[in-house]
Write a structure and sequence with these properties.
Number of helices of chain A: 15
Strand order of the largest sheet of chain B: 1-2
Helix content of chain B: 55-70%
Oligomer: heterodimer
Mean pLDDT of chain B: 86
Order of helices and strands of chain A: EEEHHHHHEEHHHHHHEEEEHHHH
Largest sheet of chain B: 2 strands, antiparallel
Distance between the termini of chain B: 37 Å
Mean pLDDT of chain A: 85
Low-confidence stretches of chain B: none
Largest sheet of chain A: 3 strands, antiparallel
Low-confidence stretches of chain A: 1-20
Largest interface: A-B, 30 and 30 residues
Shape of chain A: globular
Strand content of chain B: under 5%
Number of strands of chain A: 9
Distance between the termini of chain A: 20 Å
Structural class of chain B: mainly alpha
Strand content of chain A: 5-15%
Number of helices of chain B: 14
Number of strands of chain B: 6
Strand order of the largest sheet of chain A: 1-2-3
Radius of gyration of chain A: 22 Å
Radius of gyration of chain B: 23 Å
């Protein structure tokens, strides 16, 4: 689709407009199509949005995806189950560890592999740490979208610490390949746990600072409150998930409502927009939900570290090159004949799901990935019509997409 | 010995036509003052901004580029060698300048070449022009025009034309959007800015910058009630900030915020908002033409900080530093052919600290606040600043009637 044939829908008839922005029909001037992206700094990667504008007012927009398409699903069909693990890192590359978790769980469910309890705890710790690292980045980078540079660098400082923690554990700062089918790459050391706790203390202390610079800042609130309102119905209709869904007032979190791993053992809360500040479903609430989830994830990591069971000598691998997995995992993984699984997990950006179809080979017959960012970006035209270009940037930022996952 | 005598010493000066003599004698000091101030301000401004933002953001900023006093071959880690003076990275702006000069002077295809090439010059000239009437110290004003503040505001607004030219000639929709934002914003903020600038003018009874400074050196009066003498006024009590209290406190806030908006500094950096409009009107610029926009911005920042300091904070003529330095029992410093008045020295110190403080405050605001939206910028101007500045103007008029 070229930039010139952006949908020519009539504006304002479906009532989805913020009427106060759209000029009256007789006051409209020449319409212009602007390309936002793929090299635009505000589109978080290589998203291209064709925007039909009247002056600064966005009359319509159309996200055009696919610039980062890497045939992930096809690759999965041509690799053994375990070989696809590092590829999942590249889906949502800002929360790579959470992608691995969902994929590992999908394969384990397909092949019926049990996970020892200590490994379950380790996975919870690492996945929630991944969420902390991802949300701390999202909170900061949203400040950057609104025009505040400093909170971004503060948050990035903390993300760097998280990256260093992951580097110590997995060897990678961004793309980890830490999960194995039936376990993880290596055990947590006591020293690492100590450093992790220190990191959590730092983030918890600094969160106030981030919130002062972004969430509760007057200018920031003016810019984001009441902008890009996504109603509850529309959010459900579009299959929005994650913080964006909860910001629209839907109390849904896979970790709690369809418990997996150990999430039912910890005390934590699912933050949902309640309309005390701003409008339910606006950009500010999406940002605020993320900031609150950060605190909840920290709670979960703390509890998981507290309850971490002692090391099981049977699990300890014989050499440092062996992964820390359930010893009963077969050397060559084969799925059962004619089986299929659909496993979903709550990622920082929403529900990531893997649909695997097996035909008794060592690679899936079909692998379908349900990326949260892909579903979330689809609602962009609905919620940005009638706002200004500056608001469009705020809306894209608040949906918090990662193009690696949109395009796959 | 004054300038005419200095020039008279040049052999053959008498044969030069009189009007040329007048032009040279008038222009040379102006050009010298302007260049001697603008160049370091532009260079150090970029350095200061980068270092200060780095300090605020937990980074290091440029701290390496210094002076190699010896060349010992190209090698790694040369910045740690004893023959290399780091100088806190102070030479970074020069290195940046060399880099910018070496870049391609790109003109976008389909753009208006003439306008595109001329735009940065106009923007820079506008910023430069402000220094002509900026009173830096006693006897250090290139031209103390009798329409001083009017001239300053008018010349400062020339920049809009350059930015509009840049946006139009770039043949880029983002540039055009950026420059339209700039025009809307700057033209709107000219109104409250000019109205609040008139408050000190009413109190002093003159548009001349020198007169405004002299007025602030006179005894302080609070709506007709004289407090303290000229001695106290010299220490800073005579500032317009305190006169017609509390009108000018509001006026300085409005004036300074409008200055920020006119300078396109955050939180009013909509014309070049990098997360919305790529780089706004700067998108297509590269090399030294981009650098000229940049230098112009820092020069204008300094000039407007100086104007704020002069209008409301006593300029060079009164304040704590000036008061303290005037206690020194020195009248003049002999400097060979000429003598340097002690008031000039004290004035430079006084003017510098106030201007630098306001300059730094601009940076602090930029690196703290998110960006406003266009409609919020406009409503801030027309709903709050314009009525408040009108009230300020009216009340200062009453104060002038009561006091002066």
């Amino acid at each position: 689709m070229s930039a010139t044939d952006v949908t020519d829908r009539v504006i304002g008839e479906d009532g989805s407009l913020a009427e106060y922005w759209v000029p009256a029909r007789d006051a409209r001037s020449e319409e212009m199509v602007v390309n936002m992206g793929p090299q635009h700094p505000a589109t978080h990667g290589v998203l291209r949005v064709a925007v039909k504008t009247d002056g600064e007012v966005v009359l319509d927009c159309e996200p055009m995806i696919g610039n980062l398409h890497r045939c992930k699903e096809k690759i999965a069909e041509n690799l053994q189950y375990w070989q696809f693990m590092p590829y999942t890192d590249r889906l949502d590359y800002l929360a790579a560890i959470n992608n691995e978790e969902v994929y590992a769980r999908a394969v384990e469910k397909l092949c019926g592999i049990e996970i020892p309890e200590r490994i379950q705890y380790i996975r919870t710790i690492v996945a929630e740490l991944g969420r902390v690292s991802s949300h701390v980045f999202s909170v900061g980078v949203y400040g950057l979208d609104i025009g505040a540079f400093t909170p971004f660098l503060y948050c990035y400082r903390e993300r760097e610490r998280a990256n260093s923690l992951f580097e110590k554990l997995t060897g990678g700062r961004m793309l980890y390949h830490y999960y194995r089918v039936g376990g993880v790459a290596r055990d947590l050391s006591d020293e690492w746990i100590q450093e992790c706790l220190e990191f959590l203390d730092i983030v918890e202390e600094k969160m106030e600072e981030y919130n002062a610079l972004t969430t509760w800042n007057k200018v920031f609130r003016e810019r984001t409150m009441g902008v890009g309102v996504l109603s509850r119905e529309k959010a459900l209709a579009y299959g929005i998930t994650g913080p964006a869904l909860r910001a629209s007032g839907v109390d849904w979190d896979v970790r709690r409502d369809e418990p997996y791993g150990l999430y039912d053992r910890f005390e934590w809360r699912v933050p949902v927009a309640d309309g005390r500040h701003g409008t339910i479903g606006d950009c500010w609430n999406r940002h605020w939900i993320r900031a609150q989830e950060l605190a909840e994830s920290i709670k979960i990591v703390r509890q998981a570290i507290d309850k971490l069971p002692p090391r099981d000598p049977k699990l300890t691998p014989s050499s440092m090159y062996q992964p820390y997995v359930n010893p009963n995992v077969p050397r060559i993984l084969r799925g059962p004949k004619d089986a299929e699984v659909y496993v979903r997990g709550e990622n920082p950006r929403g529900e990531l799901a893997f649909y695997l179809v097996s035909d008794a080979k060592n690679a899936p017959y079909r692998c379908k990935i349900r990326g949260p960012a892909f579903s979330n970006i689809a609602v962009l035209p609905e919620i940005s019509r009638g706002y200004l270009i500056a608001d469009l940037v705020a809306i894209i930022g608040s949906i918090d997409i990662v193009l690696g996952e949109v395009d796959r | 010995m004054n300038l005419s005598e200095l020039f008279g010493a040049i052999p053959g000066w008498g044969y030069v036509p009189a009007f040329v003599q007048m032009m040279v004698v008038g222009l040379v000091p102006a050009v010298l003052v302007v260049l001697a101030v603008v160049t370091p301000v532009g260079l150090l401004g970029t350095y200061a901004e980068r270092r200060w933002s780095a300090f605020m953001q937990d980074r290091l900023g440029p701290n390496r580029v210094g002076l190699p006093i010896w060349f010992d071959g190209w090698q790694r880690d040369y910045t740690n060698k004893p023959w290399y003076i780091k100088l806190w990275g102070l030479v970074q702006p020069l290195a940046d300048g060399i880099k910018l000069l070496g870049k391609e002077d790109f003109v976008p295809p389909g753009g208006d070449k003439l306008l595109f090439l001329a735009a940065p010059l106009i923007v820079f000239a506008g910023a430069l022009g402000m220094f002509v009437a900026l009173p830096l110290s006693y006897g250090l004003t290139a031209a103390d025009l009798n329409v001083g503040i009017f001239y300053l505001l008018a010349v400062g607004a020339v920049e809009v034309i350059g930015v509009l030219m840049a946006g139009w000639a770039s043949n880029n929709k983002w540039s055009l959007l950026g420059s339209m934002r700039e025009v809307a914003q700057v033209v709107a903020y000219e109104i409250p800015m000019a109205l609040t600038a008139l408050c000190p003018v009413l109190l002093a009874g003159s548009l001349r910058m020198g007169a405004i400074i002299e007025h602030q050196q006179t005894a302080y009066d609070l709506w007709g009630l004289t407090i303290g003498g000229e001695g106290l006024a010299q220490w800073g009590l005579g500032w317009n900030l305190f006169r017609a209290f509390p009108v000018n406190v509001v006026a300085i806030v409005i004036f300074y915020t409008c200055a920020l908006a006119n300078l396109k500094r955050a939180p009013f950096d909509l014309p070049e908002s990098e997360s919305e409009l790529v780089s706004g009107f700067l998108t297509e610029y590269s090399g030294m033409r981009w650098g000229l926009f940049f230098l112009g911005e820092y020069a204008a920042m300094f000039a407007l900080s100086g104007i704020t300091a002069t209008l409301f904070l006593g300029g060079w003529g009164s304040g704590p530093a000036y008061g303290a330095l005037m206690l020194v029992p020195v009248k003049e410093i002999p400097l060979g052919v000429a003598t340097l008045d002690w008031r000039t020295v004290a004035g430079v110190v006084e003017f510098s600290w106030k201007t630098c403080a306001l300059f730094l405050l601009m940076m602090n605001l930029r690196w703290t606040l998110p960006r406003l939206r266009l409609d919020q910028v406009m409503s801030l101007c027309f709903k709050y600043f314009v009525p408040f500045s009108m009230a300020c103007l009216l009340l200062s008029g009453l104060a002038a009637l009561a006091g002066a």
